[in-house]
Amino acid sequence: MYSKQFIIPFSLLLSLPIIFFLFIAPHVFPSPPAESLIPISDEISDQTLFSSAAASSTSLSHLSSASPKLKIAFLFLTNSDLHFAPIWDRFFSSHPKSLYNVYVHADPFVNITRLQKGSVFANAFIANAKRTARASPTLISATRRLLATAFLDDPANTYFAVLSQYCVPLHSFTYVYASLFESPTFDKSSDPDPSPGGVRVIFRTFIELISDEPRLWKRYNARGRYAMLPEVPFDKFRVGSQFFVMTRRHALLTIKDRVLWRKFKLPCYRSDACYPEEHYFPTLLNMKDPEGCTGYTLTQVNWTGTVKGHPYTYRPKEVGPGLIKRLRRSRHSSSYLFARKFTPDCLKPLLAIADSVIFRD
């Protein structure tokens, strides 16, 4: 028989793994928040939607330049009230619905005020919205849901502009539409488009594909050093704003993706470097069709004075003609088309200069 002096230390040794996993591991390797994980039921629902959208792509996955009534699908992601709905309503007013559609993904776990009849947002809320959480793959899912819904809803939706409830327009609808579909010189990153007949021939996605972000390596390893391999090598990994303007062709490519989604939905273990919504779309398009992207976004954002990953937020006293003119300036295009982030009480001063400044191009 073994003596007690050996049994007790041996038992303690065997118990060490149990102690580690029960009491130490949760602090060293904390579990991701429950709200950041994708429920199986949501996955099944999404795949049904995505499959329907992909199956419909044979009808019109990309409209030719000769197709009439090309539309912009405005896709709003929100987890709060649409504070700037009045200025957006003014943006769309007097323009025919044959030129645009509006869709809203609102977190169903948040009490959000629905807009009254007469607003473009009144019937824009999509029925299959799910819970969302910042810095989680739920925002990827929500954006893909919007893309698929808009793709299925109207084959004339040619551009898909992803926006948040804190975004505001910097120009009139006429200017935005002409910049995307008609102007041969709006995109400074490419050669002038000859645009016969007043309609652009080549449509490109306006999205950032940043490869020199200082913390890119940490972002890449947020799920573990080898978690993204082999599907996503580090030299293909990109970062960029989650607010972009995507072509119909790229919307279909995003809806059909399964391979990269399986990687980007994995939980992160570095919360300070985990922003899947800023990684998935740039990486996917960089790997699939970088030449079809401009490499920049049309939504202006100020990252000076950032707080906990949030951009600078403009307040009412800052709103004026000078701010709008500064926000429009772009090195990559004739102008930025949208801007964020504004506090809700900026609505009044923005409306005050809407007709005289914002919508006067």
TrEMBL record:
Gene name per UniProt: LOC130509337
The protein, known as: Glycosyltransferase BC10-like
A Gene Ontology cellular-component term: membrane
Coiled-coil residues: none
Subcellular location: Membrane
Species the sequence originates in: Raphanus sativus
Topological type in the membrane: Single-pass type II membrane protein
Membrane recorded as keyword: yes
Keyword Glycosyltransferase among record annotations: yes
Pfam families per UniProt: Branch
Principal cellular location given in the protein's record: membrane
InterPro entries according to UniProt: BC10-like, Glyco_trans_14
GO MF term list: glycosyltransferase activity
Keyword tags: Glycoprotein, Glycosyltransferase, Membrane, Transferase
